Amino acid sequence: VMLLNAQIDFHASSVIGTGITISRNLPSFISGDFYTDVEKFEEIIDNLISNAVKFVNPDNGMIEIALSEF
Fold first, then answer.
1. Residues facing 63 on adjacent strands
2. Model-level pTM?
3. Cα dihedral across residues 12, 41, 30, 33: positive or negative
4. Could you tell me the end-to-end alpha-carbon distance of the chain, in angstroms, rounded to an integer?
């Protein structure tokens, strides 16, 4: 979860003043660790958020990062 939060914080700081907001919706059941390839995870999240920033309306766009149990 720390990796995800770090990526969200990085991108949120990069859109300050643009009219775009990035929010997160991380439920309480995602409180522990999970095992992943750190570099790949960061790359995927970075690409997803970067692409969302490129294509969202800069006047009042909102990007929400949400995790859900399926």
1. 22
2. 0.77
3. negative
4. 17
* Residue 31 Ramachandran class (φ > 0 left, ψ -120 to 50 alpha, else beta): alpha
Q: Of 20-24, 33-37, 44-48, 64-68, where does mean pLDDT reach its minimum? A: 33-37
Q: Give the three-class secondary structure for 21.
A: strand
The angle formed by the CA atoms of residues 67, 12 and 54, to the nearest 5 degrees, is 90
Place of tokens 């969302």: 52
**37-49: average pLDDT:** 92
Mean pLDDT on 45-57: 93
Residue 8, token pair as written in the block: 């969200």
